[in-house]
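User: quick one, fold this
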Amino acid sequence: MLQKRLFYLDNLKVCLTVLVIFHHAGQAYGDGGGWAYHPSNPAEVMPWIWHFFSTNAAFFMGLYFLISGYFVPKSFDKQGAGTFVKKKLIRLGIPWLLMGGLLSVLAGKLETGHMWFVENLLFFSLVYAGIRLFCKPLLSCTSKPTIIGLFIVGALMGVGSYFIRQESPQDHWIFWMGLIFEPAHYLQYVMMFFLGILACRFEWLEKMENRIGAIALLIGIVLAIGNYARDGGEWNAFVYRWFGIYESLMCVFISFGLLWLFREYGNWSSRFWQWCAAQSYGAYIFHMILMLLLQYATDTIWMRAFGKFMFIGTAITIASFVLTWLVRMIPGVKKVL
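Assistant:
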């Protein structure tokens, strides 16, 4: 029996892809860190946008990993180890090598950029396949998401992240044995991927009660507002000190809250949303190059920082999805994108 298409997960991934694009669009006009482009006009800056970056980084890639992990068990069960690994190497390995190679050539050094996600998702999938060769799949059980359960998961993630950040602070990236990763967030990504696997096996997304989903979303929103409210003072000092824990709780509650919200109110299946879902993976892959080209091309055009941010984000969102659609018309490309 064919599994019913979960349109709400497709739609949520589309929204996450757009959020990633806007996140990167803003980096040049805030604290871009290692961003490849910096405006020549020093007035093009948005000091407040670090709140946007901080809140996004708390959950959006973790939620990506959870959704990706959700589809892994049934894909492995259906295809078997050999086909599963082969398809992952094609769909994840080829874009990682090609885009990573292009970014490295442009940067003049080894550089994977945003492809770190694809690289690590491939690694997680291969580890899962290796484990399944020796272990039987997890059996179903009657458990379902609860607020206390979500809090415990967030707290465990947070305590671990807190201690990791004592040695490796946020935005410190490491290249190790072919993998590039940020230790400060890595525990979150591993746990969220594993939660996705459990959510599939135990049918947590289907079992999550409306009351639990709504409360989780409300808690996540309150934590996000608290993060945006940081502006010096005791509250900022408190959140900054315990941010590994604060961020992890925000990640878990926002993620499960959004999963509930889209399950109940975002299960659209129009042709437009199905088209967007089909292009979202490629849009993630292509958007970085397109964005840098447009940022350099519009460097001397004055729109104010917020205007540039919105223009770049909107234009590259459209361009990335359209470019993916065109590239996927090439025979054989749909197996990759």
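User: anything notable?
Assistant: The beta strands are 174-176, 179-181.
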